[in-house]
UniProtKB/TrEMBL annotation:
Residues 1-280 form the Deacetylase sirtuin-type domain. PROSITE patterns: SIRTUIN. It comes from the Bacteria. InterPro entries: DHS-like_NAD/FAD-binding_dom (IPR029035), Ssirtuin_cat_dom (IPR026590). This is Deacetylase sirtuin-type domain-containing protein. The keyword Aminoacyl-tRNA synthetase does not apply. Keywords: NAD.
């Protein structure tokens, strides 16, 4: 539980904000039930990989054959990206924003913001989206919906062995026939064209922030795995925007930069507990 001064400041800053920028890292989705480090959930979804000694969804560097790797990707993405049930934590965050002018920047590639009441064109996802695939070359700047590719993989997937039985089911680039891969930022081959319009909208929105009312930056669950994606940019937004304030919500890394002084508030709580402090 936050101290009374922290709780009162948090509520006061939110009440006084005309604009809200949400900066969200992996900690938000973990708090919402999508924890990549959850070994029990990994065992339930991917028993064959669990038997091999693997324990989490952080598999980008795992030495697996392509048929097992695509079995993993198909199950993982189907679970985390294409669920249809509303997520209570993200819904509560949308209630928090209310009718205020807002934007979102997130390192998460699960589309949970857009799936839970946030307008898709207000959400910038610079790390990509599991909802799309790209050519690994890449031979084209086009990307494609991952859903039909994953359906083909899952139809050929054997849960007991963790393998995709039909090699023809493995996703290929429709243009050159080369290997396809989720459209997420893992190297210089990442195709970011689909996300640039949202980035430009956010930049223009921030350019107007100094004259368009008080800005509150609410950063949630952004630690030090990729601090250059969310954590440091949120600090920089507050530095260069007159009167802007930063609320950093993080159970482990809630420290705020000293140079922001009284314009930054440290909330050492998880996302659910922090929203509870606001009565949501």
């Amino acid at each position: 539980m936050a101290t009374a001064p922290v709780r009162d400041t948090l509520r006061s800053w939110l009440d006084g904000a005309d604009r809200v920028l949400i900066g969200a890292g992996a900690g938000l989705s973990a708090a919402a039930g999508y924890d990549y480090g959850d070994a029990e959930r990994f065992r339930e979804l991917l028993p064959a990989l669990h038997r091999l000694g693997l324990r989490s969804r952080y598999l980008l560097g795992a030495p697996l054959p392509k048929d097992m790797m695509w079995g993993y990707w198909a199950v993982h993405i189907d679970d985390i990206r294409y669920g249809t049930e509303p997520n209570p934590l993200y819904r509560r965050l949308r209630e928090l924003v209310g009718g205020r002018d807002h934007q979102v920047m997130t390192s998460n590639v699960d589309a949970l913001f857009a799936r839970n009441g946030f307008e898709a064109d207000r959400v910038f996802t610079p790390q990509g989206d599991y909802g799309r695939l790209q050519c690994t070359v890449p031979c084209t700047r086009d990307t494609w919906s991952s859903r039909p590719f994953l359906d083909t993989v899952l139809a050929a997937y054997d849960r007991d062995t963790g393998r995709v039985n039909d090699p023809r089911a493995l996703p290929r680039c429709p243009r050159c026939g080369g290997e396809a891969f989720p459209n997420i930022r893992v190297g210089p081959e990442f195709v970011d064209d689909a996300y640039l319009p949202a980035g430009r909208r956010l930049r223009h929105w921030l350019d107007d922030a100094s004259t368009a009312g008080s800005l509150l930056v609410v950063e949630i669950g952004a630690g030090f795995n990729t601090p250059g994606v969310i954590r440091r940019p949120m600090e920089d937004v507050v530095r260069r925007t007159p009167g802007a304030r930063l609320v950093r919500i993080n159970p482990d890394h809630a420290d705020v930069p000293a140079d922001l002084g009284t314009r930054a508030l440290s909330v050492p709580l998880g996302a659910e507990a922090a929203l509870g402090e606001l009565g949501l």
